[in-house]
C-alpha cells in the first residue's frame, strides 16, 4: 500500500460509557470486564527514584540534583538556563520534568560527593536530558487504542508477535493480547516500579479471566469459535491461553532483541531524542515486512516505508504513524542524523523564565 495521510471520520473521539460487568453470560462479557480492568494507568502515583549507592540511576540522580539546586534559587536561574539552552533539541517540555516539584527525583539531600552543576560537562547534561525524556509516562485512552488496532489490523498477518518498547504499566500489551490473535505480546520496561505494576495488573487480569470463564453457562473449549473485540475470528484458545501469550520484561529497550516481532509499538511522544537510535536498532533487527508504529515523532530511515499517517485528533490526541520494514538486512546504522528538533531558543527562554518565576515566587 502506498503511504497516505488519512483524515478518517469513523474513528472514535471519546470513551464509551461503561457499566461494571456483574454477570458473565457470554465471552463478550469477559472481554469487557478485562478491558475495564486495565484502564486508569495514567493516574498512577509516580514514586521517586531510589537514592542509594547501589541505585542504577545514581549518575542520573547526581545531575538531576545539580540542576534542581539551581532551579530552586532565583539568583541561579540565569546559569541554569545558560546550561540548558544548548540542549533544546533533546528536551521534552519547557523544563525537565524530573527537576519539577512533582518529578521523580527524591526530596532528600544529595549524597556526599555529588558534584555541583559547574563540575558537570555539557555532554553529561545532554545525555541526562535524553534519559530524562524516557522517564516521562503517558498512556493512550481506551478509545484511542481501539482506533489504533482498527487501523493496524489490515496490515497484520495472522498470529505474530507484538512488542511494546517502553510498555509502562502494560495497558497496550494486554489490550493487544485481548484484541487481536497475536501468538505473543511482550512489553519491555526499564523502570522497576512500572514493570512491577504491570505484573500486578496482569495477575488481576488473569484472575478475572479465570473467574469469567468459570462462570459462563457453557464451557469454552480450545476450539470453540470466538469473535474477538476487533471483529477477527479466533477460538477459545485466545482466552484460555491468555496467560501464556503475555510477557513483561524489565529491561532497557536497546538491550532486547526484537528479531522475531511482527509489530513493534512505540509510544514515542517522549522519545524524540532517541528516534535515530531506535530506528537504527529496528532496521538491524526486524525482518522484512514487520510493522512499526510511532506516536508524535516519525521514523526517518530508509529501511522503513510509511503506510499510514494519522493526524492529531483523528486516531489519537497526537499523530500516529504506521511503517513497514523494507529492503535487505542492515548491519550498519545510517550515516546521517535524520531527526533534528530545534525549538526557538528565545521563545523557550521566555517560557522557562515564566515557569521558574511561578515555581519559586521570584523574578528571574
UniProtKB/TrEMBL annotation:
The UniProt record lists the keyword Transferase: yes
Record flagged with keyword Transferase: yes
Pfam families in the record: DOT1
InterPro entries in alphabetical order: DOT1_dom (IPR025789), FAM173A/B (IPR026170), SAM-dependent_MTases_sf (IPR029063)
Molecular function GO labels: histone H3K79 methyltransferase activity
Keywords: Methyltransferase, S-adenosyl-L-methionine, Transferase
GO biological process: methylation
Domain DOT1: 136-203
Matching PANTHER family: FI06469P, METHYLTRANSFERASE DOMAIN-CONTAINING PROTEIN
Protein name: Histone methylation protein DOT1-like protein
Species of the source: Duganella flavida
Amino acid at each position: 500500500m502506498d503511504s497516505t495521510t488519512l483524515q478518517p471520520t469513523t474513528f472514535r473521539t471519546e470513551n464509551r460509557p461503561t457499566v461494571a460487568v456483574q454477570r458473565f453470560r457470554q465471552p463478550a462479557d469477559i472481554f469487557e470486564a478485562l478491558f475495564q480492568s486495565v484502564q486508569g494507568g495514567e493516574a498512577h502515583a509516580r514514586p521517586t527514584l531510589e537514592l542509594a549507592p547501589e541505585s542504577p540511576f545514581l549518575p542520573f540522580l547526581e545531575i538531576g540534583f545539580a540542576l534542581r539546586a539551581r532551579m530552586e534559587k532565583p539568583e541561579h536561574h540565569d546559569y541554569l538556563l545558560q546550561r540548558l539552552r544548548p540542549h533544546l533539541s533533546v528536551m521534552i517540555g519547557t523544563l525537565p520534568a524530573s527537576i519539577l516539584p512533582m518529578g521523580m527525583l527524591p526530596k532528600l539531600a544529595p549524597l556526599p560527593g555529588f558534584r555541583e552543576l559547574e563540575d558537570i560537562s555539557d555532554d553529561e547534561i545532554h545525555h541526562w536530558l535524553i534519559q530524562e525524556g524516557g522517564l516521562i509516562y503517558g498512556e493512550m485512552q481506551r478509545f484511542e487504542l481501539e482506533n489504533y488496532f482498527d487501523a493496524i489490523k489490515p496490515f497484520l498477518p495472522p498470529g505474530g508477535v507484538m512488542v511494546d518498547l517502553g510498555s509502562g504499566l502494560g495497558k497496550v500489551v494486554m489490550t493487544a493480547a485481548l484484541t487481536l490473535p497475536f501468538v505473543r505480546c511482550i512489553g519491555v520496561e526499564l523502570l522497576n516500579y512500572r514493570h512491577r505494576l504491570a505484573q500486578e495488573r496482569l495477575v488481576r487480569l488473569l484472575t478475572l479471566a479465570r473467574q469469567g470463564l468459570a462462570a459462563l453457562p457453557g464451557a469454552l473449549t480450545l476450539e470453540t469459535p470466538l469473535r474477538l473485540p476487533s471483529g477477527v475470528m479466533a477460538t477459545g484458545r485466545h482466552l484460555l491461553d491468555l496467560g501464556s501469550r503475555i510477557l513483561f520484561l524489565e529491561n532497557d529497550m536497546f538491550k532486547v532483541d526484537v528479531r522475531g516481532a511482527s509489530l513493534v509499538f512505540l509510544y514515542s511522544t517522549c522519545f524524540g531524542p532517541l528516534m535515530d537510535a531506535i530506528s537504527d536498532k529496528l532496521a538491524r533487527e526486524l525482518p522484512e515486512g514487520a510493522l512499526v508504529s510511532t506516536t508524535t515523532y516519525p521514523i526517518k530511515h530508509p529501511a522503513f516505508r510509511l503506510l499510514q499517517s494519522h493526524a492529531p485528533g483523528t486516531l489519537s490526541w497526537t499523530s500516529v504513524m504506521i511503517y513497514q520494514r523494507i529492503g535487505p538486512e542492515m548491519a550498519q546504522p545510517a550515516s546521517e542524523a535524520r531527526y533534528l528538533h530545534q525549538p526557538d531558543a528565545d521563545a523557550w527562554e521566555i517560557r522557562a523564565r515564566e515557569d521558574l518565576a511561578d515555581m519559586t515566587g521570584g523574578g528571574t
